Automatic annotation (TrEMBL):
CDD domains given in the database record: Complex1_LYR_unchar
Keywords of the record: Signal
Region of interest: Disordered: 268-301
Domain Complex 1 LYR protein: residue ranges: 14-71
Species this protein is from: Aspergillus brasiliensis
Bias-annotated ranges (Basic and acidic residues): 268-286
InterPro entries membership: Complex1_LYR_dom (IPR008011), Cup1-like_N (IPR046896)
Pfam families: Complex1_LYR
Signal peptide: 1-23
Protein name, entry field: Complex 1 LYR protein domain-containing protein
């Protein structure tokens, strides 16, 4: 152990012994005056404040002050009224300083204007609340493949087909629902485990074949070959991966069909809105002309 570390350990043990001695003396103080009850938390607070001191001179000064406090506590516990009054004064000054600091912080908070929440922070908080609300699938939610909806309120949102590391999903709006993220994460983990198992079995198959060949050379006959179970497991995991990829491809095709149909309906609805917006000024103009004609006939009459 280095000399520096030994010195630090000695200082640590010395400070710990001093701390315990101070707390023991606090328990021996007279019950009155009542201010003496604050002596123990005062000492705990001071030790906690200065426990990270690194400077040798500051550490030495703190230990010196601690031993002086220990002598003061001892004399007060023996009935020395000067010691009691000095402790009362220290506690009173400490409490007064705390109150002044708290008052300063309150006044400072009144003067400093509250920083307005930025749009970015508001959006971040809204996204956080949305993810909490979408942690579970809504019980009345319909399948995304049930789209397109024949009628929608307002402007139709055309979904976007997104590829999440090989798994498709339709994004209607941002942010992405939390339960959808959980589903995608589960699929990714399941496929990754299968790929790891496939890789492990592919590396085990040559070793199993070597075992079979060794048994053949040595004339040692087994009821089943070493490579048999490995081949069965390999075929099983290959089938699982192929079946999963096939379902993923079918799902992507079905989702793309939904996107195309949604686009078609969105274009039709936009065209209808434009036509209706064009008719409205013409109708207003016709109504205005008819009114002017009636006014003209009235004036001539």
């Amino acid at each position: 152990m280095s000399a520096t570390r030994v010195r630090l350990t000695i200082i640590h043990l010395t400070a710990l012994a001093l701390y315990r001695a101070l707390l023991r003396q606090c328990a021996k103080l007279p019950h009155s005056p009542s201010e003496l009850k604050a002596c123990k938390p005062y000492i705990q607070n001071r030790f906690n404040r200065y426990k990270a001191l690194q400077s040798p001179s500051q550490t030495a000064n703190s230990l010196k002050a601690g031993y002086e406090a220990l002598d003061l506590l001892y004399s007060a516990s023996q009935g020395d009224q000067n010691g009691v009054q000095r402790i009362r004064k220290l506690i009173s000054e400490s409490e007064s300083a705390k109150r002044q600091k708290s008052e300063w912080h309150r006044e400072r908070a009144k003067v400093i204007p509250v920083k307005p929440v930025s749009r970015k922070e508001l959006k971040k908080e809204a996204n956080k609340r949305y993810r909490i609300l979408t942690a579970k699938r809504h019980p009345n939610a319909t399948s995304i493949l049930a789209r397109p909806r024949p009628v929608v309120n307002g402007k139709r949102r055309v979904p976007v087909l997104v590829n999440a590391r090989g798994f498709p999903f339709l994004l209607i709006k941002k942010p992405q629902p939390k339960f959808l993220s959980a589903v995608l994460d589960s699929k990714l983990k399941r496929r990754w485990k299968r790929m790891e198992r496939l890789k492990r079995l592919e590396s085990e198959l040559p070793m199993a074949r070597d075992e079979d060949e060794w048994d053949l050379l040595t004339g040692h006959k087994e009821d089943a070959k070493w490579s048999g179970p490995v081949k069965v497991s390999l075929k099983e995991v290959q089938g699982q991966i192929s079946e999963g990829d096939r379902k993923t491809k079918e799902l992507a095709q079905a989702m793309w069909k939904v996107v195309l149909e949604e686009r078609k309906l969105a274009e039709q609805e936009e065209k209808q809105r434009v036509e209706q917006a064009g008719k409205q000024p013409t109708e207003e103009k016709g109504t205005l002309s008819a009114g002017q004609h009636d006014m003209k006939q009235s004036s001539e009459g």
